[in-house]
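New to this. Help decode both lines:
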Amino acid sequence: MNHCTRNVFAGDWNFLLRFQRKTRTKCHQSSGTALIYHTRGQTTAARQAPDDGKGEKPPLRAIDLARKLRQERANTRTAQPNVSPQQKRVIDLKRFSLQLQNIHPNVLAKHLKRGVLYQDQHVVVVNKPYGVPVTDASGETTISSVLPVLSKMMDGMRVKSNSQLLPCLGLEKEITGALLLARSEEAAKHVLELNRSNQVQRKYWLITVGVPVPSEGMIDIPIIEREITGSQPHYKMALSPVYRMNDTGSGLTKVRANRQSLPAVTKYKVLDSHAGCSLVELQPLTGVKHQIRVHMAFALTCVILGDHKYSHWSKLAPQKLPEGVLKKLGLEQSKSRHLPLHLHARQLTLPKDGDGIISVVCPMPKFFTQTLRRLNLTFPKEKDETATL
């Protein structure tokens, strides 16, 4: 190979090297540009692509949640038919009761703490709300289930706290008012001993359909539980009198008492009456199940307003109210099933440990006072009288 040939080959080789480096540079720039464009395209597509349900949903912002709740409330108001103020109150009360049964125990404990009426080193008295049971085996939220939380709140949320609260004298699920709690097992036993010796006095206020005659007296008729047969088999508490009218109707004849019956004594006094309804104060001297409701319904024939269980003997049905009462309450008969039981534990009195007396007056619930106003019933005023839910 001569010198010229070597120069040609050398020139070609140098050209090829320069061409290769230039091509690599262009290809690298071109691929880089394509990569950038591809990445942007993927990002844009990801933003515009609809959610197919397989990927993660974007987090819900607080402002979006607030808008959603406002829209749901607006839809509910639009869909809800026109109702009277009393019907709206009944619906609100029913919703409030269901909420209390299903809310977190801490929330119910805070509600009870706001309703503390009296406390000392031995006992606590709280304002029990409507529709919440004191104890229940069904698993729903109860007063007893939140007492550990309530005790801790009342003790200042201290980490090392041995305080406790125990139910002493219970109230039925539908009854509102003063509920007595003990701070220890010894205090609970002491309260039960006081109750057995009739040293604990509990007075109830209730609204009846009908006017008791006489306006003041004492009911002393034993009570027994009976089975009701028929299309709706169930059990009810009933009267088991030890006297009956004789054959001539001129006097009473004593009969043998049923072994399963329980002594039941109730003092009562009519505080006010108007248009076929009454506000009555009762003081049970015994503690039989449903004693007040049975004595009012079957002994005085004046059923408590909202007592659907004892409004009928042989069936389970909503309370049937007179037209005049329905008109005053602003209700239709078909809506009477929503009426709550108007039975309130008004006053609790018991001896104080050492010396003195504990006397607590519990404010009436708001639905109770509203019904009193609608029925034009008045009551004696006490100090610090307020209406709470």
Observations:
- The longest strand covers residues 265-274.
- The radius of gyration is 37 Å.
